[in-house]
Design a protein that fits this description.
Chains A, B: Keywords: DNA-binding, Transcription, Transcription regulation. Chains A, B: It comes from Streptomyces guryensis. Chains A, B: One of its GO terms (molecular function) is transcription cis-regulatory region binding. The structure is a homodimer. Chain A is an alpha/beta fold. Chain A has 3 domains: 44 residues, 434 Repressor (Amino-terminal Domain), CATH 1.10.260.40; 127 residues, Response regulator (Rossmann fold, 3-Layer(aba) Sandwich), CATH 3.40.50.2300; 130 residues, Response regulator (Rossmann fold, 3-Layer(aba) Sandwich), CATH 3.40.50.2300. In chain A, 47% of the residues lie in helices and 14% in strands. In chain A, the strands form 3 sheets. A 6-stranded parallel beta sheet of chain A has the order 2-1-3-4-5-11, with helices on both faces. In chain A, strands 7-6-8-9 form a 4-stranded parallel beta sheet, with helices on both faces. In chain A, helix 1 crosses helix 2. The N terminus of chain A is likely disordered. The interface between A and B is large, with 65 and 64 residues. The structure holds a DNA duplex.
Chain lengths: 343, 343
Amino acid sequence: MTMSNTGGRRRPPTIHDVAREAGVSRGTVSRVLNGGHYVSPSAQEAVNAAIRKTGYVVNRHARSLITGRSDSVGFLLTEPQERFFEDPNFNVLLSACTQALAAHDIPLLLMLAGTEDERRRITRYITAGHVDGVLLVSSHSGDPVAEQLREAGVPLVQCGKPMGLGSKVSYVAADDRDGARDMVRHLLSRGRRRIGMVSGPLDTPGGVDRLAGYKEVLTEAGVEIDERLIVSGDYSRASGEAGCARLLAQAPDMDAVFVASDLMAQGALAALRRAGRRVPEDVSVGGFDDSVAATEATPALTTIRQPYDRISSEMVRVLLAQIGGEDPAAVILPTELVKREST
Amino acid sequence: MTMSNTGGRRRPPTIHDVAREAGVSRGTVSRVLNGGHYVSPSAQEAVNAAIRKTGYVVNRHARSLITGRSDSVGFLLTEPQERFFEDPNFNVLLSACTQALAAHDIPLLLMLAGTEDERRRITRYITAGHVDGVLLVSSHSGDPVAEQLREAGVPLVQCGKPMGLGSKVSYVAADDRDGARDMVRHLLSRGRRRIGMVSGPLDTPGGVDRLAGYKEVLTEAGVEIDERLIVSGDYSRASGEAGCARLLAQAPDMDAVFVASDLMAQGALAALRRAGRRVPEDVSVGGFDDSVAATEATPALTTIRQPYDRISSEMVRVLLAQIGGEDPAAVILPTELVKREST
DNA sequence: TTCTCTACTGTGAACGCTCACAGAGCATCA
DNA sequence: TGATGCTCTGTGAGCGTTCACAGTAGAGAA
């Protein structure tokens, strides 16, 4: 009669139906559902059979209403959206986080805070308790959203080291400084001495730390730091191109350049090509990330691999621990030099 | 005393608190929350003031428990994950869908069905009613997940035309055939006659339709269809490179090639470069999608713009309509020729 | 006046689950 | 033997909403 055109979903079985089917009470079914402690093996078995038979799936809304947990997690991106489109790393991160959460049966809610309006709406949504915790991607410093969430006591794990170190916030990051050291040592081992650097934004720890590693190794090796060999970009391809062009203008004798992201390195390759420099014969190029941009570039980029899969799983691990009541934690993961054609 | 280290969230205000504050009953508050019909202006005003004062946010779990709706939507990707990493279009689609839903205050749950196991879990999650509807990205034919969801009566909108046309399922797609026609006409207008094609997979409507458009225009123009000028790829960069190399081997006199995706076109450019052909002097290259891959390519690609932002907003519109009880609908959106350096 | 209709408001009962509690059965120990 | 523990089970209450229903007040018609 009232069969709707959408196919007419029928009322799904409740815990009551399962209890009746198994010949036990709601309480027992609930106990089986939540770990099965204090349940006799026979009841356990009967309930599981009843669940299979009825096709029962727990109603998360009802559960959340009473537990106060939502059993869901937000993935919040406060970067400008274009970066999301452009940077292949976000995809890996997002995908790996989704999968890591799925293993715990926790859905991921994607939240994009582009405009001020969205930012406000999302903050309200989160602080209202509609997610248990937040995975935050925001490399820029002084993110007001992060601060607000922290104040509201929302479990939070940031991807990448946050700028204000005073605040006790969880984060998972690759060892930027050490990665940079490896790359510059590698360039030195190739006989390069006039090594340029296109760093990331200097209001981000990633930008600062990679530059610090670069300077550290050069100083160790007795190579003079030349400020004309240093510029900074914003991780976009275009800024890599512009930055490298500037380096070439300021220091025409540059024989290598360490670029703080693969995407910027792609841009740098374009600038070098336009300037008629051969890579790696005239100028070696080193990237950072080991994203698909590195393998797609011509020539393929030597780069520093950031273990995004491990970063993702650690972010999820730390977040769930924090939701479980543990203290915030910082995790730094090792990077790896990946040699390809550009050096 | 029991202040937890997470900062101690306090109990959020309920509809009851708002009612007390406003001096009205729960029912009145609820009515204000849901459209405000049959509420006096004075009560309306009092309730809104109370909401602002208490910082009340509706508890979605409680609401969902009684309405049966979850007020959330799943974004389901059944493609192999690598495509997700590689193809910039997915980002645009995902991001635009998230934003379009956000405008309706509906969160998006990201669901990646890579393995068989995940597929099963996700299907159960969806059919249990934990989302009101699903935005599905799956260009390949005979997707068992789609079929299962359709049978379960879950509102569903697919991105791209589905293969089995018999089944009544909503979809939003660009006009592939017409886009292909525009591109081939454009190549003809550049004086090209030996026009090759690297199509998409021929078990997808996109693959079939773009090839059909290609053949149609050539036939109209009186140009003979030469099967040696036609190969098919899988939309990946690598397959574009391999496909174009094969075309060059089979038909060395090829003077243009229409490649069914920008990513494949990037590969084709690489193959042409390696073969020593200049683009566009010796061979014109046309892509499809107008993704960032098109502007990043050297030379920048002439391509067919798919209106992904409109596709996204239409997908959301159609899905919400279907959740609201309307019949499934198909939407075909026009494409646009974008001329750049490669032709 | 009385009756009807409309605009508005309050109340109790759900929704499906978890949790605290009480209590039953059984073994162990003084 | 009774007290004490342990394992296991059922029951009622309640989470924060919405919804159906009943009911009130005022305007207009009979």
